[in-house]
Amino acid sequence: MILTEEAARHRQEVPRPASLAGYAPPHRRRRRLWPWTLLVLFLAAAGAGAYWYGSVATAATGPRHVFATAQRGDIENNVAAVGLIEPRDYVDVGAQVSGQIEALHVALGDEVEKGALLAELDARVLKSQVAANQAQLRNLAAQLKERQAQHQLAREEHAREQGLMALNATSQSALDTAAANLRVAEAQIASTRAAIEQTQSNLDGDLANLGYTRIYAPMSGTVVTLDARLGQTLNANQTAPIILRIADLDTMTVKAQVSEADISSLRLGMAAHFTTLGEPDRRWSGTLRQILPTPEEVNGVILYNALFDVANTDRRLMTQMSAQVSFIVAAAQDVVTVPVSALRKTAGGGWEVQVADDLGNLAARKVEIGIRNRSQVEVAYGLAAGERVVVGVQSGDTQSGGMRLRGFF
């Protein structure tokens, strides 16, 4: 093939790669870039359109009101607290004397009657002391009889000396000696009687201590704790050892811890109710009977203990249970209520709500409120059950892309 001079020169100017694989002339590479350029322009246009549409839609729609329907029902304003359930009446039974426990006649959970024998201590030492004092009393009784006889003799001798002195048949010294012997005999009798009284007192104490070795129930109830064991030695000289606790579980006391911010709202005699963790659907009721004057500090918070009692005949309440307590400050039944967020302050210091009609038109209406708590309020006048009120405004949140609810109150 014969090339012209111009074609040969053009072939020399265009370099060819060592390998022709993947090679394309420059004008073909430029043709392949135009689809990507169109795609970028299309995406940019779509984003701008979406932004414009969202702005127009938001401007057209604007904030939307959130409604709630006035309901008829019960409402109460209460003070909430956390409480602990304990028996109202209980006694810790201890030992008044030292000794080893020889017998335990009850077990944990047993029902006992007042006067029932609970435990017995080793009484051998006390029995020996009682026997010694009884023997001492017998000895002193014999001494008293002896000294009474001596006293009788001294009195007769003194009378005889007085008769002889009247006849000048004796000396004054003999009369004085007889009188002194009489006084000594009288003093010995008095000393012996005092010793008898002292020994009798010691005997009475030993007999009482001997009786304390048998421990009886001071009240009827249930054995709720048992701190001692058979064979354990109790030392009553330093501290009073506790053997067990008896409690009457038919009446329980709820000890509720109320913060100092709420304690001023409580009044003796006010109603209270509570639920337990095990039975959240059951409500127990009682009446506040006492507010302890000395508070407790828990993690820097001042808490006052408020006490009220509740019947427990079915024994569903047990010692140390937790209670969710509500003290009722005010309550009303079968009244119209709305959420607190529906209220708005008026210029005159009263209250109003925005009411919607069937067409969605809003109108402000003045109302009179009654009992109010953290979430609901009683409408005493100005609103009927079933009417819809505005409780907030729902608007777009451009920062988060979500919705934000704004209330009035």
Automatic annotation (TrEMBL):
Transmembrane domains' residue ranges: 33-54
Limits of the Multidrug resistance protein MdtA-like beta-barrel domain: 251-327
GO BP terms: xenobiotic detoxification by transmembrane export across the plasma membrane
Chain segments carrying region Disordered: 1-22
Chain ranges of the Multidrug resistance protein MdtA-like alpha-helical hairpin domain: 137-204
SUPFAM superfamilies cross-referenced by the UniProt entry: HlyD-like secretion proteins
Family indicated by similarity: Belongs to the membrane fusion protein (MFP) (TC 8.A.1) family.
Protein name: Macrolide-specific efflux system membrane fusion protein
Biased composition range(s): Basic and acidic residues: 1-14
InterPro entries referenced in this protein's UniProt entry, alphabetically: MacA_alpha-hairpin_sf, MdtA-like_b-barrel, MdtA-like_BSH, MdtA-like_C, MdtA-like_HH, RND_pump_MFP
A GO cellular component entry from the record: extrinsic component of membrane
Domain Multidrug resistance protein MdtA-like barrel-sandwich hybrid residue range list: 91-244
Domain (Multidrug resistance protein MdtA-like C-terminal permuted SH3): residue spans on this chain: 334-392
Keywords annotated in UniProt: Cell inner membrane, Cell membrane, Coiled coil, Membrane, Transmembrane, Transmembrane helix, Transport
Coiled coil (residue ranges): 127-202
GO molecular function, one term: efflux transmembrane transporter activity
Protein location: Cell membrane
Source superkingdom: Bacteria
Chief subcellular location: membrane
